[in-house]
Amino acid sequence: MRETKSMPKLEGKDHTASMLREGYQFLRNRRRGLHSNVFETHLLGEQVICLSGAKEAELFYDTDKFIRKGAAPKRVQQTLLGEKGVQTLDGEAHCVRKEAFMSLMGPEQIQQLKEMAAGQWERKLRDWEQQGEVNLYEEAQELLLRLACQWAGVPLKEKEIKEKQEAIVQLFETPATLGYTHWKGKKAREEMEEWIGGLIKSVRKGDLIPFEGTAMHVFSFHRDEKGKLLSEKIAAVEVLNIVRPIVAIAIYIAFTGHALIQHPEEAKKLSSGKEKDLQDFVQEVRRLYPFFPFNAARVKENFKWEDYEFKKGTLTILDFYGTNHDPKLWNNPEVFNPSRFAEESITPYNLIPQGGGDYIQNHRCAGEWVTLEVMKVSLDYLANRMTFEVPAQDLSYSLVDIPSIPKSEVILKHVKRKN
Ligand code: HEM
Ligand code: MYR
Questions:
Q1: Which residues are involved in binding heme (predicted)?
Q2: Domain presence at residue 7
Q3: Domain count of the fold of the chain
């Protein structure tokens, strides 16, 4: 029997305050200080194990060792996630629900999404040519809300757009906030669940008939592992698990604009519009820029790993941002370099801005392909199908605020279609 090693530990009672102060870099700073990818600390009033790195990601996604039940913080459920959605499930129940999500991601549906995304960019480009300045982050939110609803089979009236856009943005901008801002996020979730819940009811009554293979259709009629229809509320949570994150791609579009402005030499390399170049650029945007900082799970049963003891029930977090910036996995990780992927290969556990592992067995983001395709269409428009000027603005972004967004939200001036 091998001996048990004691896990490096961050001394002190509770480190929640430092985590709020240091944001995306908290885990990385502590890991460096302790010289260990695995350490123990106290956060939000409980003992927590912190993991970072590819090997550690492989451990975190071992479903014999970790479960998600009871892992997502309440304040994240009240805003971003909702209750009893796919993110909180384990085992058979998770597989059945996740298969429903992945049934939306077939090649025909993704092709349709790309065509719809290009259509939405065409429409925005026409509008922008008539305007002096445009705010890329805000404009992308509206573009993506229209796209999300069109693709998901959610009817959206023109006069509802501003209101729904504002509410959905709150869902992903407020999970890590406090006080009034967080309260607004909770209100927004109640409103959005009521809106989509009402539509689910109409579909079930036959008053609204979405196309097959859309999220509205799939979740209105999805049956769980016991053969039961989802409640209206849970069906609404799952449709929102499609619509909300598509709108959240606005953050990546703002960072894509940021990268194009900051790296004109990389922007030039995209002029042939080759798929591989677009792909490498957006992968590098997802690797470098901060977005989803980390995620949490709980130890399923006592086990030992590399001689460290993991006790049943212990909250364990995996550092997504830190793994994407790990110098053992990436050469010069702080440098924006899309060409790195010619030599540095992507595995299910090293590039994890949207989680790692397998789509069905694990909680890896169901919308990673959607994100990549929408980002590539958007990059092609920004780099190759339009010209713009960049007025003076503060393009810096915080590594403390979660989620991080460029301060100026990326302002473009004198947008023109490229012939
Ligand atoms: C899960 C990030 C876009 C749908 C996740 C997870 C992360 C993530 C970190 C959890 C992974 C884990 O815990 O292992 C992001 C980011 C996005 C994005 C940064 C960029 C905007 C999307 C899109 C969709 C989507 C566009 C849908 C079209 C989902 C779903 C889950 C999920 C359904 C839950 C999967 C499960 O629990 O099995 N995402 N995501 N996401 N994402 Fe995304
Ligand atoms: C989405 O699912 O809407 C896309 C990503 C949104 C990112 C929001 C960032 C805040 C998440 C904090 C989560 C901490 C979990 C323990």
A1: 365
A2: no
A3: 1
pLDDT digits (tens, 9 = 90+) for 118-150: 999 999 999 999 999 999 999 999 999 999 999
**What digits encode the pLDDT tens for the residues 162-179?**
999 999 999 999 999 999
Q: Is 2 domain-assigned?
A: no
Which residues span the domain enclosing 242? 16-417
pTM greater than 0.90: yes
* Ligand nearest to the CA of residue 27, numbered in listed order: 2
95 labeled part of a ligand binding site:
no
The answer to whether residues 389 and 411 touch, using CB atoms and an 8 Å cutoff, is no
> Is 252 inside any structural domain?
yes
Distance 253 CA to ligand 1 centre (A): 16
The 10s digit of each residue's pLDDT in 380-397 is: 999 999 999 999 999 999
Residues 294-342: tens digit of each pLDDT: 999 999 999 999 999 999 999 999 999 999 999 999 999 999 999 999 9
Burial class of residue 148 (count of CB atoms within 10 Å of its CB; 0-12, 13-18, 19+): buried
Helical H runs in 131-274? 136-152, 161-173, 179-205, 215-221, 232-262, 264-268
**Rounded to the nearest whole angstrom, what is the distance from the C-alpha of residue 265 to the centroid of ligand 1?**
31
In a domain, 31, yes or no: yes
Question: What CATH number did the domain enclosing 364 receive?
Answer: 1.10.630.10
Ligand 1 binding site (Cβ under 6 Å of any ligand atom): 86-87, 98, 101, 241-242, 245-246, 248-249, 252, 291-292, 295, 353-355, 363-367, 370-371
Task: State the DSSP string of 231-264.
Answer: PHHHHHHHHHHHHHHHHHHHHHHHHHHHHHHH-H
